[in-house]
Automatic annotation (TrEMBL):
Alphabetical keyword list: Signal
Protein's name in the database: Lipoprotein
Residue numbers spanned by region Disordered: 49-74
Low complexity: compositionally biased ranges: 64-74
PROSITE patterns on file: PROKAR_LIPOPROTEIN
Tagged with keyword Signal: yes
Organism: Hoyosella altamirensis
Signal sequence extent: 1-27
Length: 233
């Protein structure tokens, strides 16, 4: 795994294929991380077992491990401490199995149509929006979180692709580091950085999988959007 700490842009690539799983676990609300100082590049092995062993809503900001291309089966989409959505993939057909809000969270929206499922969770000022869709031969999973934009560092895990550390100060977002799993390449939009926002695209050319990570402060709320895509056979 390649880790880059920076205040500018990064484009890094590892070697070898990323380890992929059929279960998808997506994120909820961010947690603050210890301060990070200095700028350096270091290599470290990818963590294993994080998807099963780390409870939703605890530790680092959760992420997703997109399924193997063409994999069928049940997929758990976890919205961190907001709850989870269980769906089934079968020959390119998407079916909703269950929605389970966590205590103190409320499910306020559920919409279904062929090939698309949308679920929203709310707890006070916090919202988590989950959209799961089959589009043009690809599985798209998007999770958007909105929380009060309190100052501090946060780590967002993009399991299977890496992780991102950001800092929120006075309504602006800065990029601290991008941690890229072997087999993935990350590119950072420098124009967005200058505007106090962070936009990162990650791609695995061997599997055709992509991750898009966007975060900004809008009207006092921290908005984090993540989209995970994987081709279907």
């Amino acid at each position: 795994m390649n880790k880059t700490r920076l205040t500018g842009s990064v484009r890094t690539a590892g070697s070898g294929a990323a380890a992929l799983m059929a279960t998808v676990v997506l994120a909820g609300c961010g947690t603050q991380a210890p301060p990070v100082e200095g700028a350096h590049l270091e290599n470290s092995p990818a963590a294993t077992g994080l998807m099963q062993s780390e409870p939703a809503g605890e530790g680092r900001e959760g992420g997703a491990e997109t399924p193997d291309p063409g994999a069928d089966g049940d997929v758990v989409v976890s919205a961190g401490d907001a709850g989870a959505v269980l769906v089934r993939l079968d020959g390119g057909v998407l079916t909703l199995i269950d929605v389970v809000p966590e205590p103190s969270w409320e499910q306020v929206k559920l919409e279904q149509e062929p090939g698309e499922i949308e679920v929203d969770f709310v707890r006070g000022a916090d919202t988590v929006e989950v959209e799961i869709e089959i589009d043009d031969g690809r599985l798209d999973i998007e999770i958007d979180t909105k929380t009060p934009a309190t100052d501090g560092e946060r780590i967002y895990s993009l399991e299977g692709a890496g992780s991102v550390t950001i800092d929120v100060r006075a309504g602006f977002v800065s990029l601290i580091s991008v941690d890229v799993t072997d087999g993935w390449v990350a590119s950072v939009d420098e124009d967005e950085l200058r505007e106090g926002e962070v936009e990162i695209d990650l791609r695995n050319s061997a599997t055709g999988q992509t991750v898009e990570f966007d975060v900004e402060v809008d009207d006092g709320r921290l908005e984090v959007d993540r989209t995970y895509t994987s081709p279907l056979r």
